């Protein structure tokens, strides 16, 4: 999804790029669960997952920022580097916890922001700066094994699929903004495995 989103952004089709990023978000939440169910986990699969995450939630998401100047370009580069560092150093040493905001949620929030504001670059760039801070922060976030968790989390996931397939930009963007925001600001209270 990430490479297709990149191609859409390079051709100025940012709304299509956003849809592909949201589909990538859903697939990222499902790929680990599917691999575990099929007993198909491997070192190669883990490396490819990191590559897909970097491509989708780093490079493709940074292209939504539409860097037209030096400062815009610098922001896009810093965003990509934040995703890269987040992917390299995500282990917290605590079972079922990440260190720093997982990049799919940062991407989902930026994608939702883009769709909701109609591509308002000022708002999007401010949101990107905030997401950079959350990704490099040392705060703890629960593993997002949504499909291997409580029923209500599976329902949120199913709602995400229905939103992408059948809803308008504004409804989809609000759904993903609420989903991402609750994970970002209430990670343990709402999204831990114990809830």
Describe this protein with a few key phrases.
9 helices; mainly alpha; two-stranded antiparallel ribbon; 195 residues; 3% strand
Rg over alpha carbons: 16 Å
* Average pLDDT number: 92
Name the beta content range: under 5%
**Judging from the principal axes of the Cα atoms, what is the shape?**
globular
Explain this structure to me?
- There is one protein chain.
- The chain has nine helices and two strands.
- With 195 residues, it is mainly alpha-helical.
- The protein is globular, with a radius of gyration of 16 Å.
- It is 73% helix and 3% strand.
- Strands 1-2 form a two-stranded antiparallel ribbon.
Short description:
With 195 residues, this protein is mainly α. The protein has helices at residues 2-10, 14-37, 43-63, 70-88, 103-117, 121-136, 151-166, 169-185, 187-191, and strands at 97-99, 140-142.
Give the helices and strands, then pairings.
Layout: H1 2-10, H2 14-37, H3 43-63, H4 70-88, E1 97-99, H5 103-117, H6 121-136, E2 140-142, H7 151-166, H8 169-185, H9 187-191
Antiparallel strand pairs: 1-2
Helix pairs in contact: 1-2, 1-3, 2-3, 2-5, 2-7, 3-4, 3-5, 4-6, 5-6, 5-8, 7-8
